[in-house]
């Protein structure tokens, strides 16, 4: 009796396995995800996908075409369900295909579904903006200047395209990378143009074109960039050296400054007097003194005199 029962059980088991293997395998996906706005979150209460016909003990959910909205990802639940999780960070319409693979010891089958989600712009989130400019500098002088980001959604990511002076680097600063600092010691002169871009965590961007000027030789004098501070003891200010003051900055300390305009200004007098430059050496030669002496003598004899008393 026991032997007959065992044989019957074996036969039923084999027939059941054959029936299972011969039955059609139909794996299908149904469901959808709602549309939302930037900054809104998805969770298991926002609908999801459901699989029917699952047989295996391991399932794999993937996006095989298109892309999910930035900030979102698939979250499988049990063996036959999947929802979205995360926070939508960028407005737009996104079409994507989700595939479910059903595994036993090997792949049993797969199913796909194509979906579309629209993320609308948020009325409360503004695009990021860039404020400030880079200041001018001088060669071989330590330099530091910053620009900054505001609005949008922190943290920020910075990048630039163009040229910056040799010796300087750009780096982010601040808790949320809100500052972009150009610093170092510039080693060359010139004007350098660049475009900086800031991107917030919602992938909204802002750009700004900037220039950085590193001095023109670093001089402060007019046509005398050397900037000598000796000066002429008489304090002569030359029109051609308009940047030189207080004793002819950048001048010659031995009083041999050439006055190219033939005129100067004597600081030691209340009223300006013209310096007579006969040979351009900054003073009168012997001929000049003789001429001045003749004028003085002639003035003495020509001076009117009063009548003598009788």
Describe this structure as you would to a colleague.
The structure is a single chain. This protein has 310 residues and is mostly beta strands. The protein has 3 domains: 25-120, Sandwich (Immunoglobulin-like), CATH 2.60.40.10; 129-214, Immunoglobulin-like (Sandwich); 223-286, no CATH class. 12% of the residues lie in helices and 36% in strands. It has helices at residues 2-22, 286-302, and strands at 28-32, 36-37, 41-42, 48-52, 58-66, 72-77, 81-87, 92-103, 107-120, 129-131, 143-150, 157-162, 168-173, 179-184, 190-199, 205-214. Strand 15 (190-199) and strand 16 form a beta hairpin.
Structural class: mainly beta
What is the rounded Rg? 45 Å
Sequence of secondary-structure elements: HEEEEEEEEEEEEEEEEH
Low-confidence stretches: 14-22, 217-284, 306-310
- Residues in helix, %: 10-25%
Feature tags:
Immunoglobulin-like, mainly beta, four-stranded mixed sheet, 36% strand, 310 residues, 3 domains, disordered C terminus, 2 helices
Which helices and strands, and how do they pair?
Blueprint (H helix, E strand, L loop, with lengths): L1 H21 L5 E5 L3 E2 L3 E2 L5 E5 L5 E9 L5 E6 L3 E7 L4 E12 L3 E14 L8 E3 L11 E8 L6 E6 L5 E6 L5 E6 L5 E10 L5 E10 L71 H17 L8
Parallel strand pairs: 2-9
Antiparallel strand pairs: 1-4, 3-7, 4-7, 5-8, 6-7, 8-9, 10-11, 11-14, 12-15, 13-14, 15-16
């Amino acid at each position: 009796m026991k032997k007959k029962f065992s044989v019957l059980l074996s036969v039923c088991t084999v027939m059941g396995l054959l029936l299972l293997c011969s039955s059609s395998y139909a794996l299908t996906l149904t469901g959808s995800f709602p549309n939302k706005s930037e900054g809104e979150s998805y969770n298991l209460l926002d609908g999801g996908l459901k699989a029917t016909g699952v047989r295996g003990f391991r399932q794999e959910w993937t996006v095989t075409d298109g892309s999910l909205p930035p900030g979102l990802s698939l979250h499988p639940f049990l063996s036959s369900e999947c929802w979205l999780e995360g926070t939508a960070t960028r407005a737009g319409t996104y079409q994507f295909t989700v595939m479910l693979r059903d595994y036993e010891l090997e792949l049993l089958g797969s199913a796909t579904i194509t979906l579309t989600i629209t993320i609308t712009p948020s009325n409360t989130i503004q695009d990021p903006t860039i404020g400030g400019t880079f200041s001018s500098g001088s060669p071989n002088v330590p330099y530091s200047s910053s620009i900054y980001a505001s609005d949008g959604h922190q943290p920020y990511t910075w990048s630039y395209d163009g040229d910056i002076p040799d010796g300087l680097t750009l780096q982010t600063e601040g808790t949320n990378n809100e500052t972009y600092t150009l610093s170092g010691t510039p080693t060359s002169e010139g004007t350098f143009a660049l475009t900086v871009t800031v991107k917030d965590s919602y992938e909204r961007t802002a750009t700004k074109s900037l220039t950085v000027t590193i001095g023109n030789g670093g001089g402060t004098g007019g046509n005398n960039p050397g900037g000598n501070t000796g000066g002429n003891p008489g304090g002569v200010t030359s029109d051609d050296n308009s940047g030189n003051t207080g004793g002819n900055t950048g001048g010659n300390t031995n009083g041999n400054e050439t006055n190219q305009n033939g005129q100067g200004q004597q600081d030691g007098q209340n009223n300006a007097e013209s310096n007579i430059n006969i040979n351009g050496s900054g003073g009168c030669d012997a001929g000049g003194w003789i001429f001045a002496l003749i004028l003085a003598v002639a003035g003495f004899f020509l001076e009117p005199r009063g009548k003598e008393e009788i």
